Amino acid sequence: MSPTPSGVYVDSTPPPLPTGLQSSTHTPDVWTNDATITYTWSQAADNVSGIDGYGVFTSSGTAGSPSAVKDIEQVLTYSETLAQGSWHFNLRPVDNSGNWSASYASVGPFRIDITAPAAATALASATHQVNVQRCTTTVAVSWTAAVDTGGSGIGGYAGLWDTSPATVPAGALNISAGSTSFSQSIGSSTIGRYFHLRAQDRAGNWGATAHFGPIYANANSVLVYCTGKTNSLGCVPSIGTNGNQPSKSAGNFTVTCTSTLNQKFGLLFFGTQPQNTPFQGGTLCVASPTIRTTNTNSGGSASGNDYSGTYSFNFSTAVMNLYGMDPGETFHAQWWMRDPASPSTTGLSNAVKFTVCQ
Fold first, then answer.
1. How far is CA 84 from CA 61, 98, 104, 110, in A?
2. Closest of 320, 309, 315, 335 to residue 226, by C-alpha
3. Long-range contacts of 303-309 (CB under 8 A, 24+ apart)
4. Is 320 helix (H, G, I), strand (E, B) or coil?
5. CA-based diameter of the chain, in Å?
6. How far apart, in whole angstroms, are the C-alpha atoms of residue 309 and residue 347?
7. Closest CA to 220 of 202, 241, 205
8. Which of 118, 146, 283, 288 has the smallest number of CB atoms closer than 10 Å to its CB?
9. 119-166, pLDDT tens digit by residue?
10. Is 319 helix (H, G, I), strand (E, B) or coil?
């Protein structure tokens, strides 16, 4: 305005609103656990008396007008620390003549969540029991979902298998937010493994870790060892299996022997400890005490002498129950057979070590 005849300027025009109001540290409508926020803006000049400052109002939920009270000077940036919740930053200018803008600039919502989610609970497995040997290596785990009370909601989980009982996962989430189960092949090992599950909310807060284990998953629980005794025909009886796992519940693990003399009786003996001791011209591969099966005929050619005979013994569920063979226990087995033409009149196979699984 023009000066009055007395030379006094009169400003009755409200100042323009600031433009480009934004945050240099936060993105609207994106949850974060960083509660300290900085805002920036641009301000067009007030043509007469000039900008004196601003009223500011950080409103919860929706935008809202600042009151006609100057809170900050004519700056172009402002920082504050917010409480948990959803916030709008509102800015209203005033000029040096006391004129307040009738409106205000606003930006938001800025969503703050500083509360960690609770841990998942009831972590369990329908496929593998804790401390029980299983032959299968794909383990399914389930849980009751973690709960987030900070507002942002569960963003997902980090799930990890390893050999430590207390690992705390971090890094990328590999299980979706809505999941309450997870299945993974953890590979074969004689070592116990543990599953660790940790929830993260959408603001980036990590919850406490739930742990489960140890789980024993061993798909390679059968090992042939020791040395068989060459028989009177110059061949060596060879122990083996039918390729099944020694599962107590399945009951279909069979220990075999091939390259044995035809039409000769033999038996399988087994115990919990190995040994490597000379015995009757061969090697005794299983230490006492042992359990002996009943005699069985090798079959093969009906007449003459050859090595077409075979032996077979099935460790059924009933057999394992009879001898108290439980998952996780390891046994050693060896075949003994008749060989009338040898100096000791007996023969021996090599041996097999196997660990019973569920």
1. 11, 34, 24, 10
2. 335
3. 304/262, 305/233, 305/261, 305/262, 305/341, 306/233, 306/261, 306/262, 307/231, 307/233, 307/235, 307/259, 307/260, 307/261, 307/262, 308/262, 309/260, 309/261, 309/262, 309/263, 309/264
4. helix
5. 142
6. 13
7. 241
8. 288
9. 999 999 999 999 998 989 999 999 999 999 999 999 999 999 999 999
10. helix
Please enumerate in sequence order all residues whose Cβ is within 8 A of that of 60, keeping only pairs 6 or more positions apart, or say none: 85, 86, 87
For range 107-117, the mean pLDDT:
98
> Residue 304: helix, strand or coil by DSSP?
coil
Encode 111-138: b = buried (16+ Cβ within 10 Å), e = exposed.
Answer: bbbbbbbebbeebebeebeeeebbbbbe
Q: Specify the 3-state DSSP secondary structure of 317.
A: helix
**What pLDDT was estimated at residue 8?**
61
Cα atoms in the 13 Å half-sphere on the side-chain side of 53: 12
97 beta partners: none
Q: How confident is the model at residue 9 (pLDDT cuts 50, 70, 90)?
A: low
Residue 219 — very low, low, confident or very high, per pLDDT cuts 50/70/90? Answer: confident
Give the pLDDT confidence of 163-212 residue by residue, as tens digits: 999 999 999 999 999 999 999 999 999 899 999 999 999 999 999 999 99
**Which residue is it, tokens 């033999």?**
266
Closest CA to 175 of 145, 205, 152, 137: 145
Alpha helices in 302-352 (DSSP H): 317-322
Question: Is residue 347 a contact partner of residue 338, using CB atoms and an 8 Å limit?
Answer: yes
Q: CA 315 → CA 141, 236, 247, distances in Å?
A: 30, 24, 9
Please work out, in degrees rounded to the nearest 5, the angle formed at the alpha carbon of residue 207 by the alpha carbons of 205 and 209.
Answer: 145
Other residues' Cβ atoms within 10 Å of the Cβ of residue 100: 21
DSSP character at residue 21: E
- Structural domains of the chain in order of their starting residue, each with its CATH number: 19-112 (2.60.40.10), 121-217 (2.60.40.10), 222-355 (2.60.40.10)
Distance of alpha carbon 9 from alpha carbon 67, whole angstroms: 26
